[in-house]
Specification:
Layout (H helix, E strand, L loop, with lengths): L13 H14 L5 H12 L18 H4 L11 H10 L5 H15 L33 H7 L4 H8 L6 E4 L4 E4 L10 H6 L11 H8 L1 H12 L1 H16 L5
Antiparallel strand pairs: 1-2
C-alpha cells in the first residue's frame, strides 16, 4: 500500500520547472495542448482519500493503464514524457506529468500556479487499479470527487478544465470541442452550461450534473459571472489535485 506522504517532501525548484516547461512548450506544436492536461488529471485523479492509494504517481503511462478506454490517445504522447525525463533526470516522471498540466493551463491563458517537486513514481503493485478515474458518463460526480477529498467548490472548479479540448469520436479525426475556443482557458465553460446546449459543442453527463444540482449550479453561476474568482478557485484546486497523497 502506498503510504501517505507529507507536504515537506515537496519542494520548489524554479530552474528545473523552467527547463521542463520549455520542453513542453516545444512539444505543444506536435500534439494538442489539452491532451497534456488530460494526462495530468488522469494520473492524479486515481487518489483514494480513505486508503491513501493512487494519486500522481506516473502509473498513467504504464501499458495497462494506457489501454483503458478513459486513457485513449495517451500512447501517442508517451515518448514526449520519456524524452523530457531523460533530459531532466532530477525530476520524477510523476512530477513531469503534472508540469505538463500546469503549462497547458498557463499557456492557454489560464492562471500560473506554484509547482513543487518530489512526487514518487509507482512500481509494480503500487500502481493504480482499474475504475478509479471518473468516467465521462457517470452521474455520481460528487461522490467520486469526495472520494478524492474535494469539496463542491473544488469539484466545479476542476470541471472548468473542460474550457480546453473536447471529445474525439470515431471515425478518427471527428472532434467536438467543449467550448467555442478550445485552446483558450477562461470561464466560457460555465457560461455555456447556463445556456441551451449547442449541438456543435460537446457536453458530458458529468457536465450536465453541475447544473442539475442546486448547490453546484450556484457555484457555476458564480464562476460564469466572475472569471477572476474561477481562476483563484481553480488554481487552488488544481494544485491540490496535483499533490494528492502529499498532504
Amino acid at each position: 500500500q502506498q503510504s501517505l506522504k507529507t507536504v515537506k517532501n515537496l519542494k520548489s525548484n524554479s530552474d528545473l520547472f523552467a527547463s521542463i516547461s520549455r520542453r513542453f512548450l516545444d512539444m505543444f506544436v506536435t500534439f494538442p495542448i489539452p491532451l497534456y492536461l488530460r494526462v495530468a488529471f488522469h494520473d492524479a485523479g486515481t487518489f483514494d482519500v480513505v486508503t491513501n492509494k493512487g494519486g500522481p504517481n506516473a502509473s498513467v503511462l504504464n501499458s495497462i493503464e494506457m489501454n483503458r478506454s478513459e486513457n485513449s490517445g495517451f500512447y501517442n504522447i508517451r515518448d514526449t514524457y520519456l524524452n523530457i525525463k531523460t533530459e531532466n533526470p532530477a525530476a520524477s516522471m510523476a512530477d513531469i506529468i503534472q508540469i505538463g498540466g500546469y503549462v497547458a493551463v498557463s499557456h492557454c491563458g489560464g492562471p500560473v500556479m506554484p509547482f513543487r517537486f518530489g512526487r514518487v513514481d509507482c512500481s509494480g503493485s503500487d500502481c493504480d487499479t482499474d475504475g478509479q478515474i471518473p468516467f465521462p458518463s457517470t452521474k455520481n460526480v460528487r461522490a467520486i470527487f469526495r472520494n478524492m477529498g474535494f469539496s463542491d467548490t473544488e469539484l466545479v472548479a476542476l470541471s472548468g478544465a473542460h474550457t480546453l479540448g473536447g471529445i474525439r469520436f470515431n471515425p478518427p479525426g471527428t472532434f467536438t470541442p467543449f467550448t467555442t475556443n478550445p485552446l483558450v482557458f477562461d470561464n466560457s465553460y460555465y457560461k455555456l452550461l447556463l445556456q441551451n446546449q449547442n449541438p456543435q459543442l460537446a457536453r458530458l453527463i458529468s457536465d450536465s450534473f453541475l447544473t442539475a444540482d442546486p448547490n453546484l449550479l450556484n457555484i457555476v453561476q458564480q464562476f460564469a459571472n466572475d472569471q477572476n474568482l474561477f481562476f483563484s478557485e481553480y488554481s487552488k484546486a488544481h494544485v491540490k489535485l496535483s499533490e494528492l497523497g502529499y498532504h
